[in-house]
Specification:
The chain has 835 residues and is an alpha+beta fold. Helices cover 49% and strands 21% of the residues. Helix 1 runs antiparallel to helix 2, helix 6 packs antiparallel against helix 7 and helix 6 runs parallel beside helix 11. The structure holds ligand C2E. Ligand C2E binds next to strand 19, helix 19, strand 21 and strand 23. It is an enzyme of class 3 (hydrolase). This is cyclic-guanylate-specific phosphodiesterase. Its EC number is 3.1.4.52. It catalyses: 3',3'-c-di-GMP + H2O = 5'-phosphoguanylyl(3'->5')guanosine + H(+).
Length: 835
């Protein structure tokens, strides 16, 4: 406020000077008017004039004085205004400062009141002078009871000795240090437990006294989280470093126990059946406890763990003496000193229950949120550890077992044979290795699909397993081959008895997907020491013997012989040579005429495969076709046959000879393992041959399983105009249903009937029936293997339509057949038309 020591007249009490001047001027004007008027009427009135002049001077002076006063007044007004404004500003500032102070105080109050951290002020003497409400919450004392008390009440001395142990000194020593805000100290709750604290603080002075204000944060949760993380890392390290699972799980249990001094943690593991407790890990319990749990089943009322695993949900039993879940096991609680038990299932990543983690408490207890968090994390880690060990075990198992049947695979088998050989050498006994190959399995697998084939193999494995002893090892080598190793053999008859049992067991039908499947087994047996001294030798011997069994008509067993050894070797050679034959195009077709009995002329021919072997000369198909079929090479060779036959027939037609239908043989594998329809269509197209000049011959093996795809393919063949002939009719199942369901045009009567017909009436009867059957179904009957006039006469009499056999011609090369086609059959043949 400005200081005016000499007060001036206040402008507000003074009359307006302008009014006064205006009033004086009016008087002067009036006087002057009177003087002028008297001068003009009576002469001059001097005194009046003088009075006016004097008055005017006075007025002038007065006016000056007034003007000066006016200026003064204005200045005073300005000063006053400024002073007033200054005063008002000062007042407003004071008011604002007051408001700000009040606001700041209330803000401070509300901040300290609401702060989640404890705010504590101590004086230099370490006495508490201020606490916010959070201090009450954290330390359990009332505010009032803390004020004036030494700080050691809530933060016991823990400062280094260099700072005399007092908190104030300690804090003072930390002032100016870079990391002082990260000061960690331990507080003490009224109930006596420790509270980890993180402190940040500042100092201030008032009234010449020094104070410290500390903001203390309760970091119990963070410390727990850190400990938990530390524990997790440790367990994960154990898992990663391939520590045995049980050791890892026990470390996990120790960690949980450490986190909860009152609790005792255990883990139970389920067996593969997912229902039985297989193993208990309870390091803080006596062994009897773990033993008592092993073998128990999960269920809706099976204690905490059994129930938790049954429902795949955590089960909290705060008092085992009261819970109905513990009714059957109450004595366990008393014997092993626990009252509460809560159990949490351990899951695999796929959600499968692997086991359960339980925490036992000596008193009635319900888990806190903190405990639940710990268990959730522990259960997760346990899941990883258990699953990892199971995965490893599974990988180990897979490396040594067949995935489909679960039987040992070749690796494990060889290992077992090796062990058996070692024992046999020591104890001077024998080892038998038996190779079982399923008969007709390939047909089932190819025709009904792998899904059925796989199921069948599993059933076979089960039946075989039931035949062997525990000391025997049974393995699957892949495909339909099973091997049994019989170690420490003292009874030389043992392997034959087992082989007979297996053959009889596998000849019983199997039911897969409501289908009745008939297979069989051919078995080869090799012995140590006679047939080999290594797993490989013995397997090779058994393999050779198995092929011998197959050659003898399947469904039997053979022992290995040196002769078989040679044959097995030859077989391997043959496979190699056949592969080369395909590459080197060593196959050729021979043609055998098909004669119409009534017209006496060649109406068709059968294309028959030959192998022009560079050393062995011409090889007949029965020497190599079975191997082509077994190895799958028949698909490639069969495609070549179809193509070559179509090409040759097109050449004949182009040559102008009367067109004939050329028949090619199809193997079952060609039906199942290739797109036969496409092969046929493209061959016809490639050689511009009308489909009516091609006939496909197949045996009943193709029809073994009447699958829809095979029936569909045949109908498509018929639709495009290709002829279909059923070969070797009468030798297989010869079911009438085949003939109804498959659209064949020709029935070829197997030549064995004709061969036997002269000696057995039965065969002639069969030929007769087949011809009748063909007639009734509107099919062309063909008699195969006609070698003599008598045979020809027989089939002719019985009404057969067509004949094929050495009587007319053996299978001959293409050029010879061309000549035969052109010349026609010799008229000397006893054909009806020649009579
Ligand atoms: N004893 C005697 N035999 C006669 C007479 N007339 C014909 N044969 C023989 O009977 C067989 C007829 O063929 P298949 O029954 O289809 O039986 C054929 C057929 O199943 C198969 N085969 C031949 N070529 C092929 C082919 O290209 N593919 C397929 N998948 N199989 C073929 O090989 C089998 C044997 O063929 P091949 O040795 O050529 O034997 C031929 C033929 O030489 C006769 O009067 N007396």
């Amino acid at each position: 406020m400005s200081n005016h020591k000499n007060p001036k007249p206040t402008p507000f009490s003074h009359p307006d000077p302008n009014d006064e001047i205006r009033r004086l001027n009016k008087i002067i004007d009036a006087l002057m008017n009177r003087a002028e008027r008297s001068m003009s009427s009576q002469g001059s009135d001097f005194s009046l004039f003088q009075t006016a002049l004097m008055l005017e001077e006075k007025v002038t002076n007065r006016t000056r004085a007034l003007e000066e006063a006016l200026r003064d007044n204005e200045r005073i007004n300005r000063d006053l205004f400024r002073t007033t404004v200054e005063m008002q500003t000062e007042i407003k500032e004071r008011q604002r400062a007051q408001v700000a102070l009040t606001e700041s105080e209330s803000r401070y109050r509300s901040v300290t009141e609401a702060a989640l951290d404890a705010i504590i002020t101590i004086d230099e003497g370490n006495r508490i002078s201020f606490v916010n409400p959070t201090v009450e919450k954290i330390f359990g004392y009332s505010r009032q009871s803390m004020l004036g008390q030494p700080i050691t009440l809530i933060i016991p001395n823990q400062a280094p000795a260099s700072t005399s142990g007092s908190l104030a000194d300690y804090l003072s020593s930390q002032i100016g240090r870079l990391n002082r805000e990260h000061l960690e100290l331990t507080g003490r709750h009224r109930d006596g437990y420790d509270i980890p604290l993180e402190l940040s603080f500042g100092e201030f002075e008032t009234g010449g006294l020094r104070y410290f204000t500390a903001i203390a944060r309760d970091i119990t949760e963070r410390k727990h989280a850190e400990a938990l993380r530390e524990g997790q890392y440790h367990i994960l390290e154990l898992i990663a470093s391939d520590t045995p699972t049980e050791e890892t799980l026990e470390a996990l249990l120790r960690f949980i126990d450490h986190q909860h001094s009152d609790g005792r943690a255990t883990i139970v593991l389920l067996a593969d059946d997912g229902r039985t407790i297989e193993r208990t890990l309870a390091p803080t319990f006596p062994d009897q406890y773990g033993n008592a749990l092993c073998g128990l089943k999960t269920g809706p009322n099976a204690g905490s763990c059994g129930t938790a695993m049954y429902f795949a949900k955590p089960v909290v039993v705060s008092d085992v003496q009261e819970s109905p879940l513990w009714a059957p096991y109450r004595n366990l609680g008393e014997t092993f000193g626990f009252r509460a038990c809560w159990s949490t299932p351990i899951f695999s990543a796929e959600g499968e229950v692997l086991g359960s983690l339980a925490i036992y408490h000596p008193d009635v207890h319900t888990p806190s949120a903190e405990e639940q968090k710990l268990v959730a994390s522990a259960v997760h880690l346990a899941g990883i550890a258990i699953q990892r060990s199971r995965t490893e075990a599974r990988i180990r198992h897979m490396a040594h077992h067949d995935v489909l049947t679960g039987l040992p695979n070749r690796t494990l088998l060889e290992d077992r044979i090796e062990q058996a050989l070692a024992v046999a050498r020591r104890e001077d006994c024998q080892v038998a290795v038996m190779l079982i190959d399923l008969d007709r399995f390939k047909t089932v697998n190819d025709s009904l699909g792998h899904h059925i084939g796989d199921q069948l193999l599993r059933l076979v494995a089960e039946r075989l397993q039931a035949c062997i002893r525990r000391s025997d090892t049974m393995a699957r080598l892949g495909g339909d081959e099973f091997v049994i190793c019989m170690p420490a053999l003292h009874d030389p008859e043992g392997p034959s008895r087992l082989a007979e049992k297996i053959i009889s067991e596998l000849s019983r039908y199997f039911t897969v997907d409501d289908l009745e499947l008939h297979i069989g087994a051919s078995i080869g047996i090799g012995f140590h020491p006679t047939d080999g001294d290594t797993p490989n030798d013995l397997l090779r011997a058994a393999d050779a013997a198995m092929y011998a069994a197959k050659d003898r008509g399947r469904g039997n067993f053979q022992f290995f012989t040196q002769e078989l050894n040679r044959q097995a070797h030859d077989r391997l050679m043959l496979i190699t040579q056949l592969r080369q034959a395909i590459e080197r195009q060593e196959f050729v077709l021979y043609y055998q005429p098909l004669v119409d009995i009534h017209e006496g002329r060649i109406v068709g021919a059968e294309a028959l495969l030959r192998w022009q072997h560079p050393e062995r000369g011409l090889v007949a198909p029965d020497q190599f076709i079975p191997i082509l079929e077994e190895t799958g090479l028949m698909v490639t060779v069969g495609e070549w046959v179809i193509d070559a036959a179509c090409r040759q027939n097109a050449i004949w037609q182009a040559d102008g000879v009367p067109p004939i239908s050329l028949a090619v043989n199809l193997s079952a594998v060609q039906f199942y393992r290739s797109d036969i329809l496409k092969t046929v269509q493209s061959a016809l197209q490639r050689h511009q041959l009308d489909p009516q000049w091609l006939t496909l011959e197949f045996t009943e093996a193709v029809l073994f399983e009447e699958t829809e795809p095979v029936i569909r393919t045949m109908h498509r063949m018929k639709q495009i105009g290709v002829g279909l002939a059923l070969d070797d009719f009468g030798t297989g199942y010869s079911s009438l249903s085949y003939l109804q369901r498959f659209p064949v045009n020709r029935l070829k009567i197997d030549r064995s009937f004709l061969r036997d017909a002269e000696e057995h009436d039965g065969s002639a009867d069969i030929i007769n029936s087949i011809i009748r059957l063909s007639q009734s179904l509107g099919l062309i009957s063909v008699a195969e293997g006609v070698e003599t006039s008598t045979q020809l006469a027989l089939v002719e009499t019985l009404g057969c339509n067509e004949v094929q056999g050495y009587l007319f011609s053996k299978p001959i090369p293409a050029d010879e057949f061309t000549r035969l086609l052109k010349s026609g059959l010799p008229s000397t043949l006893p054909l009806m038309c020649n009579h």
